[in-house]
Amino acid sequence: MTNQVAHPMAKFQRKVASLIESKVIRSTDSIWKLAFLYGDEWSFWKKELLDFGFTMQDPVQEVLLVEAWDEE
Fold this sequence. Notes:
The chain has 72 residues and is mainly alpha-helical. It is built from four helices and no strands. InterPro entries: DUF4327.
């Protein structure tokens, strides 16, 4: 039996969903607002998001719509 390791963006996606559920952010907030919550880690997550085609003006809910974080 092989264990699959979750893609880092899948973990990020779950954290974003948790932030929305706890009303820390709204699903309609722009992705750039996450920078305030991630501090020093933001540069990593921003690069990842940009690599997957997101812009910092996209609503956070767009991150939740991704079904698979496969890298081609």
